[in-house]
# Entry
Amino acid sequence: MNNRIKKTVALLLTMVLVIGLFQMDTMEIYADNEIVICIDPGHGGENLGATYNGFQEKNLTLQIANVMTEYLSQFEGVKVIRTRDSDTDLSLEQRAQIAKDNNAFFLISLHLNASETHHLFGGEVWTSAFGDLYAWAHSFAEVELQELAALGIYPKHVKTRMSNQAVDEYYGILRHAKNRDIPAVIIEHCYMDEIRDEQFYTSTEAIIALGQADATAVAKFFGLKSTSLGIDYSGYQRNVYEAPATPVYQDKTAPEVRQIALNAYDPASRVANIHISAKDSESGILFFRYSVDGGINWSPLYPWTAEEGDTEIPVIASSNGDVVFKIYNGFDGGGQTNHIRLW
Ligand SMILES: [Zn+2]
# Structure
């Protein structure tokens, strides 16, 4: 190489190094510029999403997105773009491509949930299973679940889900976002098909609260300020995660500890005080339910409020005196306990 080429190569190498250093802290780059957030109201057009109580998910997601857009746009340093503003359907890939075309830093897909058994309730957030995308999205998802919890929604879990072949994301929107190197989340605000969650989506006030909660989570996560709202989240501390070297898999096993014991039984009232030991080291304990007829009929799901390990639950015995519990982890995976026979 002649000197001139050597100098050019040296200069190029320096540039690559400098660019590399800047990329080490993405927040630095975005601190002085606008952060582009892409809001994706799930479903649309012929694609209704879940439908319960006369409500269609596609309309609710659009309404939440409208509130979120309006509220988030009042913060400085953020530009909100959308995958759709009207009742139209888009493919999941189109949605991710819109985010890409607009240089979005985050793609936030808004949904409401429903379950096959109609027993689940609460909010949950799905993230990418891969590297930096996981680390960013997981941190954001925690802030989001805190905001939903502040509204009274049971915070379920921050989750990943790999495809059945275990090579890629299960959820299309997360896969297409990953292929475009955009952090993304799916927010499942609450369940449309469980009575305890009805209050969180069936009124205008509830929809406004959800949209503002989503916007607040973004504002907190990025440490934004709003002069017009008189809010400053610049000192907000979120959890920071290392990028995992391998994909983060979903929890496919039931809680490893599922044990009940009889604490006390009062024959007059038929109240049995049951001691439960439960543990799931992968995703924690979320719900329990019980049967007082040996597993034929089951109670609704109840939230697991004990920090971890043990708790006590009173149940009213039925004629056959056979008590059994089911314990569920952060991925709704459940398993039965031992039985207790009261007589
Ligand atoms: Zn949906």
Observations:
- Confidence is low (pLDDT under 50) at residues 5-29.
- Residues 257-341 form a domain with the Immunoglobulin-like fold (CATH 2.60.40.10).
- DSSP finds seven helices and 17 strands in the chain.
- Helices lie at 3-24, 26-31, 57-72, 92-101, 131-150, 172-179, 204-221.
